[in-house]
Amino acid sequence: MAGPRIAHATLKGPSVIKEICIATVLGLAAGSVWKMHHWNEQRKVRTFYDLLEKGEIGVIAEEE
Question: What family name appears in the similarity comment (predicted)?
Fold first, then answer.
């Protein structure tokens, strides 16, 4: 008695081109997120020093 035939996916080796493309996309995505984070931190620092220069904020606690 023969059972029903099940079509199994044949496993092939890794596709070099596909892996290079995936790595490139993931690398660009991670790099973009890192750059946006860096630009945001740079903007915060620049804003802090601009306010400090204008005298709107101070780094020394005022005594009462």
Answer: Belongs to the cytochrome c oxidase subunit 5C family.
